[in-house]
Amino acid sequence: MDVTLGIDVGTDQHEPRRVVEVFERFATANGVSDVVVQRFCLALDEILTNVISYGFEGIRGEPRVRVDFGLGDDLLVIRIEDNGSSFNPLADAPLPDFTLPVDERPIGGLGIHLAKNLVHDISYRREKNRNCLTLTQPL
Amino acid sequence: MKVTASQSGDAVIAAVSGRVDSVNATSFEQELSKAMEGGSSRLVVDCGELSYISSAGLRILLLAFKKTRAQGGGVALCQVQDHVREVLEVSGFTRIMTVRDTVEQAIESF
């Protein structure tokens, strides 16, 4: 990666917005297209909001969330790590059912669906008691 | 985020500006409820100045949609920017909610 930036993230509910703003400045300053910036902002927001809201329920010890951005000539990578409870959003999050009539649609559950569909590739690994999500986008 | 409400016939037009995310989704919900206090069940959400919406904001739109539909009305969106439109499409909202180019067209859609 030619350019990198890492940030430690707190568990305050305002943190996703702060991290998104940092990412937006980082990506825009380094010439990433507006479309990709907007998609990644949303994916980052949804994933972090999820981690902060639910990832540390009933977990002892200091919560740690870390986000690293990396940008090369032809690749944008965001890595999100947390030491919360084991959760693979790619496998464990329920898929929204678009065939349901409006009145039966659940309110919510869309965040992870949006992240998965707006980013080229997302992969998950559980390593050393941490959830590691990697978002990649060819540029 | 700011919501400016006005009335056109029996429809309420709520012009939303800025960003709607998990931090201010509750305020967004309160602003929409306030705009609908007069008893109208037809809500036009003017998204011309809406730069960003996350699932927390979509949740509020869906709530408003269910509420107004139950009263015989509905929600119509208009002037949606490209990025927000993509989010609406991916989340399946464009299949259930009316989306029009202009405020006038949105009002006429009811």
Give a structural overview.
The complex is a heterodimer of chains A (139) and B (110). With 139 residues, chain A is α+β, with helices and mostly antiparallel strands. Chain A is built from four helices and five strands; from the N terminus they run βααββααββ. Chain A has helices at 15-29, 34-54, 89-92, 111-118, and strands spanning 3-9, 65-71, 75-82, 121-127, 130-138. In chain A, strands 1-2-3-5-4 form a five-stranded antiparallel β-sheet, with helices on one face. In chain A, a hairpin with a 3-residue loop joins strand 2 (65-71) and strand 3 (75-82). In chain A, helix 1 packs antiparallel against helix 2 (34-54) and helix 2 runs antiparallel to helix 4. Chain A is globular, with a radius of gyration of 15 Å. The mean pLDDT of chain A is 91. With 110 residues, chain B is an alpha/beta fold. Chain B contains five helices and five strands, in the order E-E-H-E-H-E-H-H-E-H. Chain B has helices at residues 25-35, 55-70, 82-90, 93-96, 103-108, and strands at residues 2-8, 11-20, 42-53, 74-78, 98-100. In chain B, helix 1 (25-35) runs parallel beside helix 2 (55-70). Chain B is globular and about 30 Å long. At the A-B interface, helix 2 and helix 4 of A face helix 2 and helix 3 of B.
